[in-house]
UniProtKB/TrEMBL annotation:
InterPro entries: FPG_cat, FPG_N, H2TH_FPG, Ribosomal_uS13-like_H2TH, Znf_DNA_glyclase/AP_lyase, Znf_FPG/IleRS. Keywords: DNA damage, DNA repair, DNA-binding, Glycosidase, Hydrolase, Lyase, Metal-binding, Multifunctional enzyme, Zinc, Zinc-finger. PANTHER family: FORMAMIDOPYRIMIDINE-DNA GLYCOSYLASE. One of its GO terms (molecular function) is 8-oxo-7,8-dihydroguanine DNA N-glycosylase activity. Residues 239-273 form the FPG-type domain. Its cofactor is Zn(2+). It comes from the Bacteria. The keyword Repeat does not apply. This is Fpg/Nei family DNA glycosylase. Residues 2-120 form the Formamidopyrimidine-DNA glycosylase catalytic domain.
């Protein structure tokens, strides 16, 4: 799933590519992906792109006073095309193409979503705050306003909730998903099950530094990369996420996994839980 660093890099890459360009049309091939009807998608036709930005994990293409906001969900991506077919794209259940943005020199952007579970979302709005998911976002972890004190207030407000879930919740802190929450907690040497409100004092500073450092460094590594390079960059720099069974790069212990219904987390027991493996509830049920 694209998270803050990848969406930030996408925004930077597209800002350079789309600067001053006009949108000829937007072909919608996955009709369920469009979540708004006023303004219509056709209102973007003929509009010049004024900028590209990010809100949490939402991409925002501003054109002609409107905003095309894109949430790539779990399996969405954006692919730059130096040339696109002259004929409008048509719905095809076997194609990952959800929408195509055609530009004034016949280049364009393909917005795609792999897999069968479709949750990619497109919004055409006058103000990004008209998108419910953007309006409800928590603070951006790289913003100057996100301080140690702000993080401390969030954690106390979340009470006994597990820190892994708190970091992932977009209404609490924007932009961090499953992968970077694993990486942050590994960098902070904290259990993903640690209660949020128990993180105080030096532990709070450690977690804050891990959030800013992990996300900030990922943004810097991604800066200047083309969209086609971002997935590989993300995967190659993970310490524990997606590395089940491999050696922890810090201590050499085996990276372990806890599975849930639709996701999993990875961690190092030596670095994060005092050497004690965490209970894998799904596996426990299967073994009964």
């Amino acid at each position: 799933m694209p998270e803050l660093p990848e969406v930030e890099a996408l925004a930077q890459d597209l800002a350079g590519r789309l600067d001053g360009r006009a949108i000829v049309r937007v072909d919608l091939t996955a009709f369920m992906a469009l979540k708004t009807f006023d303004p219509p998608l056709a209102a973007l036709s003929g509009a010049f792109v004024d900028g590209v930005s990010r809100h949490g994990k939402f991409l925002d293409i501003e054109a002609g006073g409107l905003h095309l906001c894109i949430h790539l969900a779990r399996a969405g991506w954006i692919r730059w095309k130096d040339s696109v077919p002259a004929l409008p794209a048509r719905p095809n259940s076997k194609s990952p193409l959800a929408a195509r943005i055609v530009l004034d020199d016949d280049s364009g952007l393909d917005i795609t979503e792999a897999g069968t579970k479709k949750s990619l979302a497109l919004y055409v709005v006058r103000d990004p705050q008209d998108v419910p998911g953007i309006a409800s976002l928590g603070p951006d972890p790289l913003a100057d306003a996100f301080t140690v004190d702000v993080l401390g207030e969030i954690l106390q407000r979340e009470g006994r909730k597990q820190i892994k879930g708190v970091l992932r919740h977009q209404g609490t802190i924007a932009g961090i998903g499953n992968a970077y929450s694993d990486e942050i907690l590994h960098a902070a040497r904290m259990s993903p099950y640690k209660p949020a409100s128990s993180i105080e004092g030096d532990d709070l500073v450690t977690l804050y530094d891990a959030i800013r450092g992990t996300v900030g460094e990922a943004v810097e590594r991604s800066r200047g990369l083309a969209a086609s390079e971002l997935k590989g960059e993300k995967k190659s720099n993970m310490a524990v996420h997606g590395r089940t069974g491999q050696a922890c790069p810090v201590c050499g212990d085996t990276v372990r996994e806890v599975s849930f219904a639709d996701s999993s987390l990875q961690y190092c027991a030596t670095c994060q839980t005092g050497g004690k493996p965490l209970a894998d509830r799904r596996m426990s049920k299967l073994l009964k």
